[in-house]
Structure formats: C-alpha cells, structure tokens
Amino acid sequence: IRTIQQRLSYKPYEQGRIVIILDGCEWLTPPATNALLKTLEEPPGHALLLLLTSHKTALPLTITSRCQLVPFRSLTPDHLRTILERRGDEREAATLSVMMSQGGLTTSERVTAALEARSQAHVLLADVLQNNAQAVFLRARQLAGKRDQCEALLDWLILLCRDLVMLHVAPSRPLYNDDLRPDLEPLARQVRVDPL
Length: 196
Known about the structure:
The chain has helices at about 1-10, 30-40, 60-65, 75-85, 90-100, 105-130, 135-145, 145-170, 180-190; strands spanning about 20-25, 45-50. By secondary structure, the protein is mostly helical. It has a two-stranded parallel ribbon with strand order 1-2. Helix 2 (about 30-40) links the parallel strand 1 and strand 2 (about 45-50). Helix 8 (about 145-170) crosses helix 9. The termini are far apart.
C-alpha cells in the first residue's frame, strides 16, 4: 500500500490516468486497510484503483462504502478451459479445474496448483515406496525454504496414504483420489497394513 501511495503521488507520465489493480484485497492486514482507507478518502484525480476480491464481505465496510461495486460474471466453462489450455495446462487437469472453479480464473489457478501438488505427492510417494532415496532427497532439496509448497505436499501425502490403507481394508469404498485408483492399486500392494 505504501508503494501504491508513493506511485500515486506522481502525475501520470504518458497517459492521463494511473490505474492500480489490487488483487486479493481480502488478505489486507488491518494496518494496510487503514493506509488504503486514507487513499480512498482523498484519491488523486488522476488515479483509478481497482480492488479485486472474490469475497467482498471480507473487506471492511469503511473500504466498500468508498468504492463502486462492479460485479464480474463467471467465465463460461469452454472459455475458461481455452484459457487454461493456452497457458499450458494439460487437458485433463484443465477439465477438472474448470469443473471445480465455477467459472473463476483465480479459483481455477488455485485448483491447478493443488492438482500439481497432488501429482508431485503421488510421484514422491511412489519414490518412497520403491526406496528411491536419491529422488526423495532431490525433491526435499527443491522444496527447502518453500513452506507453502511443503504444506500442500504433506497434505496430499496424508490423503494418498489414507487411500493406500483404504485399498487394503475396504477396497470397494471410494477413495479421496479415486481418479488415481489405477495408479494407487499397485502402490498399495507394496504396503503392509497391520490390523490394530
């Protein structure tokens, strides 16, 4: 917010207006919200601030009361799938992302990131079960210092391990990762589950 305020203190160089896009405004801290409020109360005439959020109720009333609400429609599934595939997402992942995101590009990006984390967890689990220590240590080195990615990977590992156990004790029951069942069944045969 301080950087934005500093930028807005200068007049536009080429165009007649400075446009600032603030995405994810629901994550603003209280001090950042208070600083933004000062800018919204007395905005420079050459400034246009776009506050983007998928949860407008997460913003304080002091902010929303000084803004004009412009709702955006969700993208059609075909349009969203085209965007994701042009970006390089695999067709199957793009289709699943479209189904889960309800037409929101930001949500679909989160879904895509989650699916990528699941894929990495699946590969890592296979490496662990096959005693491929070199691949496991290489992955650990790549994740060093990346807390969010580590947490996502561990969350998926827990669900995948749960699925391996379920394949032993109740193989006909649905799995959390039922779409991976053909890949998980051979891994489950490598795991011994002792009854309690």
